[in-house]
Amino acid sequence: MSASLKRLITSPVVITTVAFLLRMGFFFHSHQIIHNTVRDNLPFGYELGAVARSIAAGHGFSSPLRWFDTGPTAWFGPIYPYLTAGVFKIFGIYSYSSYLVLQVLNCAFSALACIPIYLAAKRSFGNGVGACAGWLWVILPTAVLFPLQWIWDTSLSALWMALLFYATLRVKETSRTSAWIGYGALWAVGALINPSLVSVLPALGIWLVLQLRKRALPWLRVVTVGALFFFAGIAPWTIRNYVVFHKFIPLRSNFGLELWLGNNADTVDNDSWAQHPNDDLSEGLKYKQLGETAYMDQKLHEAIAYMRANPGHDAQLVYHRFVSTWLGTWDPIQDYWASATFFVRLIESTNVLYSLLVLLGALFASRSGNSDLIPYVAVLFFFPLVFYFTHASLRYRFPMDPVMTMLAANGIFSVGSFLAAQSRKLRGPTLASRLSS
Question: Which of 162, 192, 150, 203 is nearest to 396 (CA)?
Fold first, then answer.
Protein backbone atom coordinates (compact mmCIF):
# COMPACT_ATOMS: atom_id res chain seq x y z
CA MET A 1 0.00 0.00 0.00
CA SER A 2 1.39 3.39 -0.97
CA ALA A 3 2.19 5.79 1.84
CA SER A 4 -0.25 8.41 0.54
CA LEU A 5 -3.13 5.93 0.37
CA LYS A 6 -2.31 4.67 3.84
CA ARG A 7 -2.34 8.22 5.21
CA LEU A 8 -5.66 8.80 3.50
CA ILE A 9 -7.49 5.78 4.89
CA THR A 10 -6.05 6.25 8.38
CA SER A 11 -6.88 9.96 8.56
CA PRO A 12 -9.59 10.68 11.17
CA VAL A 13 -10.58 13.77 9.17
CA VAL A 14 -11.24 11.66 6.07
CA ILE A 15 -13.06 9.01 8.09
CA THR A 16 -15.27 11.63 9.78
CA THR A 17 -16.03 13.39 6.50
CA VAL A 18 -17.12 10.15 4.83
CA ALA A 19 -19.24 9.29 7.88
CA PHE A 20 -21.06 12.64 7.74
CA LEU A 21 -21.65 12.44 3.98
CA LEU A 22 -23.02 8.90 4.32
CA ARG A 23 -25.45 9.94 7.06
CA MET A 24 -26.58 12.99 5.15
CA GLY A 25 -27.07 10.86 2.05
CA PHE A 26 -29.34 8.49 3.96
CA PHE A 27 -31.16 11.45 5.50
CA PHE A 28 -31.99 13.22 2.26
CA HIS A 29 -32.87 9.95 0.59
CA SER A 30 -35.25 8.72 3.26
CA HIS A 31 -36.75 11.69 5.12
CA GLN A 32 -40.39 12.57 4.74
CA ILE A 33 -42.03 15.98 4.82
CA ILE A 34 -42.83 17.02 8.38
CA HIS A 35 -45.66 19.52 8.72
CA ASN A 36 -45.32 22.60 10.88
CA THR A 37 -47.22 21.11 13.81
CA VAL A 38 -46.09 17.64 14.91
CA ARG A 39 -46.91 17.57 18.63
CA ASP A 40 -48.53 14.15 18.29
CA ASN A 41 -45.80 12.63 16.15
CA LEU A 42 -42.21 11.57 16.36
CA PRO A 43 -39.43 12.51 15.84
CA PHE A 44 -39.68 15.47 18.22
CA GLY A 45 -43.26 15.55 19.45
CA TYR A 46 -42.81 13.66 22.72
CA GLU A 47 -41.20 14.45 26.08
CA LEU A 48 -37.97 16.10 24.99
CA GLY A 49 -39.62 18.06 22.21
CA ALA A 50 -42.38 19.17 24.56
CA VAL A 51 -39.84 20.51 27.08
CA ALA A 52 -37.95 22.29 24.28
CA ARG A 53 -41.25 23.79 23.07
CA SER A 54 -41.95 25.08 26.57
CA ILE A 55 -38.50 26.68 26.83
CA ALA A 56 -38.78 28.28 23.38
CA ALA A 57 -42.25 29.59 24.23
CA GLY A 58 -40.92 31.29 27.36
CA HIS A 59 -42.41 28.91 29.92
CA GLY A 60 -39.13 27.48 31.17
CA PHE A 61 -37.91 23.91 31.59
CA SER A 62 -41.35 22.35 32.02
CA SER A 63 -44.30 20.32 30.68
CA PRO A 64 -42.90 17.10 29.16
CA LEU A 65 -46.35 15.71 28.24
CA ARG A 66 -48.07 16.42 24.95
CA TRP A 67 -51.51 16.51 26.56
CA PHE A 68 -51.25 19.68 28.63
CA ASP A 69 -48.89 21.92 30.60
CA THR A 70 -47.77 20.27 33.84
CA GLY A 71 -45.28 22.71 35.34
CA PRO A 72 -41.53 22.42 35.98
CA THR A 73 -39.73 19.16 35.24
CA ALA A 74 -36.38 17.46 35.77
CA TRP A 75 -37.19 14.67 33.32
CA PHE A 76 -33.96 15.29 31.37
CA GLY A 77 -30.54 16.75 31.79
CA PRO A 78 -30.73 20.33 30.50
CA ILE A 79 -28.23 20.52 27.64
CA TYR A 80 -30.03 18.82 24.74
CA PRO A 81 -33.50 20.26 25.53
CA TYR A 82 -31.96 23.74 25.60
CA LEU A 83 -30.11 23.03 22.34
CA THR A 84 -33.39 21.94 20.75
CA ALA A 85 -35.17 24.96 22.20
CA GLY A 86 -32.52 27.23 20.67
CA VAL A 87 -33.20 25.71 17.26
CA PHE A 88 -36.96 26.11 17.83
CA LYS A 89 -36.44 29.75 18.79
CA ILE A 90 -34.57 30.49 15.56
CA PHE A 91 -36.33 28.23 13.05
CA GLY A 92 -39.77 27.74 14.59
CA ILE A 93 -41.35 25.43 17.17
CA TYR A 94 -41.98 22.00 15.63
CA SER A 95 -41.28 23.45 12.18
CA TYR A 96 -39.92 21.58 9.22
CA SER A 97 -36.87 23.86 9.21
CA SER A 98 -36.15 22.96 12.84
CA TYR A 99 -36.51 19.29 11.95
CA LEU A 100 -33.89 19.66 9.20
CA VAL A 101 -31.44 21.55 11.40
CA LEU A 102 -31.74 19.10 14.31
CA GLN A 103 -31.32 16.09 12.04
CA VAL A 104 -28.20 17.58 10.47
CA LEU A 105 -26.83 18.21 13.96
CA ASN A 106 -27.52 14.61 14.96
CA CYS A 107 -25.75 13.38 11.83
CA ALA A 108 -22.80 15.61 12.71
CA PHE A 109 -22.67 14.32 16.30
CA SER A 110 -22.68 10.72 15.06
CA ALA A 111 -19.96 11.42 12.48
CA LEU A 112 -17.76 13.34 14.91
CA ALA A 113 -17.68 10.31 17.20
CA CYS A 114 -15.28 8.79 14.64
CA ILE A 115 -12.48 10.99 15.98
CA PRO A 116 -12.41 9.90 19.66
CA ILE A 117 -13.20 6.32 18.57
CA TYR A 118 -10.15 6.35 16.29
CA LEU A 119 -7.91 7.99 18.88
CA ALA A 120 -8.96 5.76 21.78
CA ALA A 121 -8.68 2.52 19.78
CA LYS A 122 -5.31 3.63 18.39
CA ARG A 123 -4.08 4.35 21.91
CA SER A 124 -5.18 0.96 23.22
CA PHE A 125 -4.53 -1.35 20.26
CA GLY A 126 -2.46 0.46 17.63
CA ASN A 127 -2.98 2.54 14.51
CA GLY A 128 -4.46 -0.31 12.45
CA VAL A 129 -7.20 -1.02 14.97
CA GLY A 130 -7.83 2.72 15.36
CA ALA A 131 -8.48 3.13 11.64
CA CYS A 132 -10.56 -0.06 11.57
CA ALA A 133 -12.69 1.23 14.47
CA GLY A 134 -13.24 4.56 12.74
CA TRP A 135 -14.35 2.94 9.49
CA LEU A 136 -16.54 0.45 11.35
CA TRP A 137 -18.37 3.38 12.97
CA VAL A 138 -18.79 4.92 9.50
CA ILE A 139 -20.86 1.96 8.29
CA LEU A 140 -22.35 0.61 11.53
CA PRO A 141 -26.13 0.50 10.81
CA THR A 142 -27.18 1.87 14.21
CA ALA A 143 -24.67 4.71 13.96
CA VAL A 144 -26.00 5.60 10.50
CA LEU A 145 -29.73 5.19 11.12
CA PHE A 146 -30.33 6.13 14.77
CA PRO A 147 -29.44 9.82 14.26
CA LEU A 148 -32.24 9.94 11.68
CA GLN A 149 -34.96 8.37 13.82
CA TRP A 150 -35.37 10.64 16.85
CA ILE A 151 -34.78 14.22 17.89
CA TRP A 152 -33.14 13.09 21.10
CA ASP A 153 -29.74 13.21 22.81
CA THR A 154 -28.84 9.71 21.52
CA SER A 155 -26.11 10.69 19.05
CA LEU A 156 -24.70 13.46 21.24
CA SER A 157 -24.54 10.99 24.16
CA ALA A 158 -22.60 8.51 22.01
CA LEU A 159 -20.17 11.23 20.96
CA TRP A 160 -19.68 12.28 24.58
CA MET A 161 -19.15 8.71 25.79
CA ALA A 162 -16.40 8.32 23.18
CA LEU A 163 -14.81 11.61 24.31
CA LEU A 164 -14.99 10.59 27.98
CA PHE A 165 -13.47 7.22 27.24
CA TYR A 166 -10.60 8.70 25.25
CA ALA A 167 -10.00 11.29 27.98
CA THR A 168 -9.90 8.49 30.56
CA LEU A 169 -7.15 6.73 28.61
CA ARG A 170 -5.23 10.00 28.41
CA VAL A 171 -5.38 11.19 32.02
CA LYS A 172 -4.22 7.87 33.44
CA GLU A 173 -0.67 8.95 32.59
CA THR A 174 -0.62 12.50 33.92
CA SER A 175 -0.83 14.37 37.19
CA ARG A 176 -1.18 17.78 35.55
CA THR A 177 -3.88 19.74 37.33
CA SER A 178 -5.15 21.32 34.11
CA ALA A 179 -5.76 17.90 32.56
CA TRP A 180 -7.83 16.77 35.54
CA ILE A 181 -9.79 20.02 35.60
CA GLY A 182 -10.72 19.38 31.98
CA TYR A 183 -11.56 15.76 32.77
CA GLY A 184 -13.91 16.73 35.59
CA ALA A 185 -15.56 19.41 33.44
CA LEU A 186 -15.99 16.92 30.59
CA TRP A 187 -17.84 14.55 32.93
CA ALA A 188 -20.05 17.38 34.19
CA VAL A 189 -21.13 18.21 30.64
CA GLY A 190 -21.76 14.52 29.97
CA ALA A 191 -23.94 14.25 33.08
CA LEU A 192 -26.00 17.22 31.92
CA ILE A 193 -26.40 15.71 28.45
CA ASN A 194 -27.38 12.22 29.57
CA PRO A 195 -27.13 11.31 33.27
CA SER A 196 -26.88 7.61 32.32
CA LEU A 197 -23.28 8.25 31.29
CA VAL A 198 -22.35 8.77 34.94
CA SER A 199 -23.07 5.09 35.65
CA VAL A 200 -19.54 4.22 34.47
CA LEU A 201 -17.75 7.05 36.30
CA PRO A 202 -17.12 5.28 39.65
CA ALA A 203 -15.51 2.24 37.98
CA LEU A 204 -13.37 4.36 35.65
CA GLY A 205 -12.41 6.61 38.56
CA ILE A 206 -11.20 3.67 40.64
CA TRP A 207 -9.23 2.34 37.67
CA LEU A 208 -7.58 5.74 37.18
CA VAL A 209 -6.54 5.92 40.83
CA LEU A 210 -4.92 2.49 40.54
CA GLN A 211 -3.14 3.52 37.32
CA LEU A 212 -1.76 6.69 38.89
CA ARG A 213 -0.57 4.79 41.95
CA LYS A 214 1.02 2.16 39.72
CA ARG A 215 3.02 4.92 38.01
CA ALA A 216 3.93 6.45 41.39
CA LEU A 217 2.12 9.66 40.46
CA PRO A 218 0.38 11.84 43.08
CA TRP A 219 -3.27 10.90 42.73
CA LEU A 220 -5.20 12.35 45.67
CA ARG A 221 -4.77 16.00 44.67
CA VAL A 222 -5.63 15.60 40.99
CA VAL A 223 -8.56 13.25 41.58
CA THR A 224 -9.93 15.67 44.16
CA VAL A 225 -9.58 18.57 41.72
CA GLY A 226 -11.34 16.59 39.00
CA ALA A 227 -14.17 15.63 41.37
CA LEU A 228 -14.59 19.23 42.53
CA PHE A 229 -14.95 20.50 38.97
CA PHE A 230 -17.42 17.71 38.19
CA PHE A 231 -19.63 18.57 41.16
CA ALA A 232 -19.25 22.30 40.51
CA GLY A 233 -20.40 21.69 36.94
CA ILE A 234 -23.60 19.90 37.90
CA ALA A 235 -24.30 22.02 41.01
CA PRO A 236 -26.37 24.76 39.30
CA TRP A 237 -28.76 22.18 37.87
CA THR A 238 -29.00 20.29 41.18
CA ILE A 239 -29.64 23.55 43.06
CA ARG A 240 -32.32 24.51 40.53
CA ASN A 241 -34.04 21.16 41.08
CA TYR A 242 -33.95 21.55 44.86
CA VAL A 243 -35.33 25.08 44.71
CA VAL A 244 -38.13 24.06 42.32
CA PHE A 245 -39.09 20.66 43.79
CA HIS A 246 -37.89 21.02 47.42
CA LYS A 247 -36.19 17.67 46.99
CA PHE A 248 -32.65 16.50 46.25
CA ILE A 249 -32.66 15.56 42.54
CA PRO A 250 -29.03 15.58 41.37
CA LEU A 251 -29.70 15.20 37.65
CA ARG A 252 -33.13 13.90 36.64
CA SER A 253 -36.36 12.71 38.18
CA ASN A 254 -37.96 10.01 36.04
CA PHE A 255 -36.39 6.79 37.36
CA GLY A 256 -39.56 5.77 39.22
CA LEU A 257 -41.64 5.90 36.05
CA GLU A 258 -39.05 4.02 33.98
CA LEU A 259 -38.80 1.28 36.61
CA TRP A 260 -42.60 0.97 36.83
CA LEU A 261 -43.04 0.78 33.04
CA GLY A 262 -40.78 -2.28 33.07
CA ASN A 263 -42.16 -3.87 36.23
CA ASN A 264 -45.93 -4.06 36.55
CA ALA A 265 -48.67 -6.58 35.86
CA ASP A 266 -49.03 -5.42 32.24
CA THR A 267 -45.32 -5.65 31.38
CA VAL A 268 -44.58 -8.14 28.60
CA ASP A 269 -40.95 -8.98 27.75
CA ASN A 270 -39.63 -5.42 28.03
CA ASP A 271 -42.04 -2.72 29.20
CA SER A 272 -45.64 -1.52 29.19
CA TRP A 273 -45.18 1.42 26.83
CA ALA A 274 -48.92 1.96 26.34
CA GLN A 275 -49.17 3.03 29.98
CA HIS A 276 -46.67 5.85 29.58
CA PRO A 277 -48.28 9.15 30.63
CA ASN A 278 -47.53 10.50 27.16
CA ASP A 279 -49.58 7.67 25.63
CA ASP A 280 -52.19 6.96 28.32
CA LEU A 281 -54.36 9.99 29.08
CA SER A 282 -55.41 8.63 32.48
CA GLU A 283 -51.76 8.34 33.51
CA GLY A 284 -51.12 11.81 32.11
CA LEU A 285 -53.93 13.20 34.27
CA LYS A 286 -52.53 11.42 37.31
CA TYR A 287 -49.11 12.92 36.61
CA LYS A 288 -50.65 16.40 36.34
CA GLN A 289 -52.72 16.03 39.51
CA LEU A 290 -49.98 14.59 41.73
CA GLY A 291 -47.13 16.67 40.36
CA GLU A 292 -43.90 15.24 38.98
CA THR A 293 -42.08 14.26 42.16
CA ALA A 294 -45.13 12.69 43.87
CA TYR A 295 -46.02 10.81 40.70
CA MET A 296 -42.48 9.47 40.27
CA ASP A 297 -42.34 8.44 43.95
CA GLN A 298 -45.64 6.60 43.62
CA LYS A 299 -44.46 4.73 40.53
CA LEU A 300 -41.20 3.81 42.25
CA HIS A 301 -43.06 2.32 45.20
CA GLU A 302 -45.47 0.44 42.91
CA ALA A 303 -42.59 -0.98 40.87
CA ILE A 304 -40.63 -2.13 43.93
CA ALA A 305 -43.76 -3.70 45.42
CA TYR A 306 -44.42 -5.60 42.20
CA MET A 307 -40.83 -6.80 41.94
CA ARG A 308 -40.91 -8.10 45.50
CA ALA A 309 -44.24 -9.85 44.98
CA ASN A 310 -43.26 -11.40 41.63
CA PRO A 311 -39.57 -12.32 41.73
CA GLY A 312 -39.96 -15.09 39.13
CA HIS A 313 -41.59 -12.82 36.56
CA ASP A 314 -39.09 -10.10 37.32
CA ALA A 315 -36.16 -12.47 36.77
CA GLN A 316 -37.67 -13.45 33.41
CA LEU A 317 -38.00 -9.79 32.44
CA VAL A 318 -34.36 -9.11 33.38
CA TYR A 319 -33.28 -12.05 31.23
CA HIS A 320 -35.29 -10.79 28.25
CA ARG A 321 -33.80 -7.31 28.59
CA PHE A 322 -30.28 -8.70 28.86
CA VAL A 323 -30.76 -10.65 25.63
CA SER A 324 -32.40 -7.67 23.95
CA THR A 325 -29.51 -5.39 24.90
CA TRP A 326 -26.85 -7.62 23.41
CA LEU A 327 -28.64 -9.31 20.51
CA GLY A 328 -31.10 -6.60 19.55
CA THR A 329 -34.16 -8.80 20.08
CA TRP A 330 -35.47 -11.41 22.51
CA ASP A 331 -37.63 -13.07 19.83
CA PRO A 332 -36.39 -16.00 17.74
CA ILE A 333 -34.57 -14.72 14.66
CA GLN A 334 -37.06 -16.34 12.28
CA ASP A 335 -39.94 -14.47 13.95
CA TYR A 336 -38.66 -10.94 13.57
CA TRP A 337 -37.11 -11.73 10.19
CA ALA A 338 -40.54 -12.70 8.84
CA SER A 339 -42.29 -9.46 9.84
CA ALA A 340 -39.64 -6.75 10.21
CA THR A 341 -38.82 -3.99 7.76
CA PHE A 342 -35.57 -4.06 5.82
CA PHE A 343 -33.84 -1.58 8.15
CA VAL A 344 -34.94 -3.47 11.27
CA ARG A 345 -33.65 -6.71 9.75
CA LEU A 346 -30.37 -5.00 8.87
CA ILE A 347 -29.86 -3.57 12.36
CA GLU A 348 -30.87 -6.64 14.33
CA SER A 349 -29.11 -9.23 12.17
CA THR A 350 -25.93 -7.12 12.07
CA ASN A 351 -26.06 -6.66 15.84
CA VAL A 352 -25.57 -10.39 16.52
CA LEU A 353 -22.30 -10.36 14.54
CA TYR A 354 -21.35 -7.04 16.12
CA SER A 355 -21.72 -8.41 19.66
CA LEU A 356 -19.71 -11.49 18.70
CA LEU A 357 -16.88 -9.30 17.39
CA VAL A 358 -16.95 -7.30 20.63
CA LEU A 359 -16.51 -10.51 22.59
CA LEU A 360 -13.67 -11.63 20.34
CA GLY A 361 -11.98 -8.25 20.69
CA ALA A 362 -12.16 -8.47 24.47
CA LEU A 363 -10.80 -12.04 24.45
CA PHE A 364 -7.86 -11.12 22.22
CA ALA A 365 -7.11 -8.08 24.40
CA SER A 366 -7.18 -10.28 27.49
CA ARG A 367 -4.95 -12.87 25.88
CA SER A 368 -2.37 -10.22 24.97
CA GLY A 369 -2.47 -8.79 28.49
CA ASN A 370 -3.65 -5.36 27.31
CA SER A 371 -3.67 -3.05 30.34
CA ASP A 372 -6.52 -0.95 28.91
CA LEU A 373 -9.01 -3.82 28.87
CA ILE A 374 -10.51 -3.05 32.29
CA PRO A 375 -12.14 0.30 31.34
CA TYR A 376 -13.65 -1.31 28.24
CA VAL A 377 -15.17 -4.10 30.32
CA ALA A 378 -16.29 -1.60 32.96
CA VAL A 379 -18.31 0.39 30.41
CA LEU A 380 -19.87 -2.74 28.93
CA PHE A 381 -20.79 -4.04 32.38
CA PHE A 382 -22.03 -0.95 34.19
CA PHE A 383 -23.66 1.19 31.50
CA PRO A 384 -26.49 -1.20 30.49
CA LEU A 385 -27.06 -2.47 34.04
CA VAL A 386 -29.97 -0.14 34.82
CA PHE A 387 -31.73 -1.05 31.56
CA TYR A 388 -31.91 -4.72 32.57
CA PHE A 389 -34.24 -3.63 35.38
CA THR A 390 -36.20 -0.87 33.61
CA HIS A 391 -36.54 -1.47 29.88
CA ALA A 392 -34.00 -2.08 27.15
CA SER A 393 -33.49 -1.21 23.51
CA LEU A 394 -30.59 -0.73 21.13
CA ARG A 395 -31.30 3.00 21.31
CA TYR A 396 -30.73 3.02 25.06
CA ARG A 397 -27.53 1.02 24.59
CA PHE A 398 -26.29 3.26 21.78
CA PRO A 399 -24.18 5.65 23.92
CA MET A 400 -21.79 2.79 24.71
CA ASP A 401 -21.64 1.56 21.10
CA PRO A 402 -18.48 3.61 20.43
CA VAL A 403 -16.66 1.58 23.10
CA MET A 404 -18.09 -1.63 21.66
CA THR A 405 -16.89 -0.54 18.22
CA MET A 406 -13.31 -0.20 19.49
CA LEU A 407 -13.40 -3.77 20.81
CA ALA A 408 -15.13 -5.06 17.68
CA ALA A 409 -12.38 -3.49 15.56
CA ASN A 410 -9.78 -5.21 17.72
CA GLY A 411 -11.62 -8.47 17.12
CA ILE A 412 -11.63 -7.95 13.36
CA PHE A 413 -7.98 -6.90 13.26
CA SER A 414 -6.87 -9.74 15.56
CA VAL A 415 -8.74 -12.40 13.57
CA GLY A 416 -7.29 -10.99 10.36
CA SER A 417 -3.76 -11.06 11.80
CA PHE A 418 -4.24 -14.61 13.07
CA LEU A 419 -5.51 -15.84 9.68
CA ALA A 420 -2.66 -14.10 7.88
CA ALA A 421 -0.13 -15.75 10.20
CA GLN A 422 -1.71 -19.17 9.62
CA SER A 423 -1.66 -18.60 5.87
CA ARG A 424 2.07 -17.81 5.97
CA LYS A 425 2.71 -20.99 7.94
CA LEU A 426 0.76 -23.09 5.42
CA ARG A 427 2.65 -21.59 2.48
CA GLY A 428 5.92 -22.55 4.12
CA PRO A 429 9.25 -20.83 3.48
CA THR A 430 9.46 -18.59 0.46
CA LEU A 431 11.63 -19.39 -2.57
CA ALA A 432 14.10 -16.69 -1.55
CA SER A 433 14.51 -18.13 1.95
CA ARG A 434 14.99 -21.64 0.57
CA LEU A 435 17.68 -20.44 -1.88
CA SER A 436 19.47 -18.49 0.84
CA SER A 437 19.59 -21.57 3.05
Answer: 150
